[in-house]
Amino acid sequence: MDVTSDRLNGVHASKLRLVKDMRERSALRELSNMETRRHIAVDAVEQASKHLANAERRRARVEAELYREMLSADAISVADLERRHHLIIGRLTEEIAATQRAFDEARSAQDQAEAAVLEARTLWAKRSTASQKWQEIERDVQRMTDAHCEAAAEIEADDEVVLRYRRGSDRQVGGEPT
Q1: Is residue 92 within 8 Å of residue 58, measured between CB atoms?
Q2: What is the arithmetic mean of pLDDT over 76-84?
Q3: Which residues contact 17 (CB under 8 A, 6 or more apart)?
Q4: Of 62, 126, 142, 164, which shows the fewest CB atoms inside 10 Å?
């Protein structure tokens, strides 16, 4: 909104600046909230990544143990061992898939949070710029008001001097013999 400072009085300029300041503070709070959410999302991605890595390590460890058991095959038949292997590996594979989905969801939430932060930062920057502009307008209005008051005071002082001069002239003219 383009506004010339000569069309505003000080009260209106101050009120408009206060509105812009409130909007800027609101945008800054929103940015802070978005930054917090982004931080939480980053932590969630880190946790999901750790859970995924742990699940993959656990699966590798269990697979290695099962293969060792298959190779020894002393106590259990190979068919039972193979069935057990498929059952355990299947469960671990499902666990890894679920952990992978959780990781993907956390990554998606992080991306959304980062986009929201960027949007909030852009909004805050715009509102901050508007607030600064209104501070400048308010200062300009104040300077113009001060200059106007000063000029009015000078005019009033000049008028007083002229009136005194005229009164003095009238006395001199009236007091002279003709």
Answers
A1: yes
A2: 75
A3: 131, 134, 135, 137, 138
A4: 164
For the range 104-111, what are the long-range contacts, defined as Cβ-Cβ under 8 Å and sequence gap of 24 or more? 105/48, 106/41, 106/44, 106/45, 106/47, 106/48, 107/45, 107/48, 109/41, 109/44, 109/45, 110/38, 110/41, 110/42, 110/44, 110/45
pLDDT at 80 over 50: yes
E-strand ranges in the chain read none
Residues 6+ away with beta carbon under 8 Å from 51:
99, 102, 103
Other Cβ atoms within 10 Å of 12 Cβ, number: 14
Q: What is the pLDDT of residues 115-125, one digit of tens each?
A: 999 999 999 99
Closest CA to 147 of 13, 15, 5, 14: 5
Q: How confident is the model at residue 76 (pLDDT cuts 50, 70, 90)?
A: low
Degrees to nearest 5, angle at CA 98 with 92 and 103: 125
The residue extents of the domains of the chain are 14-175
**Does CATH place domain 14-175 in 3.30.559.10?**
no
Three-class SS of residue 83? Answer: helix
Give the E-state strand segments of 31-169 in sequence order.
none
Check: CB of residue 51 under 8 Å from CB of residue 104.
no
